[in-house]
Amino acid sequence: MGSSELSIETICFDVLGIIKALRYYKKCDLALNVFEWIRNRPDSDKLVNRSAVAVIISMLGKEGQVSAAASFFHNLHNDGFGIDVYAYTSLITVFASNKRYREAVMVFKKIEEEGCKPTLISINGEGLVADCDGFSTTSVGTSTTWCRRHLVLHGGGG
Q: Key word Repeat present in the record (predicted)?
């Protein structure tokens, strides 16, 4: 690895560290501004770690800004920013934690449509299974059926 690659990787992790620190101090707006400032640079694709997207989505969700988290995610996706499974998982968790199960399932289906391989956390959706026993989530093939059953059990749909 060359020195320029190393310095770009270091900057990328520094940006992630700054965003995480701002999350810790509950400075969500400032974290978003830092992200957008870096993203508006011509070489931003090299400077923004995709993990930062997941951190910002989670941060917005914890502050109760569910619509802002969804909007942030969708704007990045529409702009062609490379969204990974961790960003999807963060959005699923945000929706599930706020009892918006139908939207969580829709995001999960989007993971499948995009060809991303869901993680176990994506399948479980953290808040989605927190209070549910009796449905197997051990294979991705049964996960959509499980999510639909969970929605019916918890009044989120039919």
A: yes
Number of structural domains in the chain: 1
Sequence-separated (6 or more) residues with CB below 8 Å from residue 89: 54, 118, 119, 121, 122
Domain containing 138 equals 3-153
Q: What is the CATH number of the domain that holds 27?
A: 1.25.40.10
Give the angle subtended at the CA of 38 by the CAs of 2 and 77, to the nearest 5°: 100
What distance in Å separates the CA atoms of residue 22 and residue 62, rounded to the nearest whole number? 13
Contact 144, 108 (CB under 8 A): yes
Q: Sign (positive/negative) of CA torsion 7, 9, 12, 16?
A: negative
Say what the pTM is: 0.74
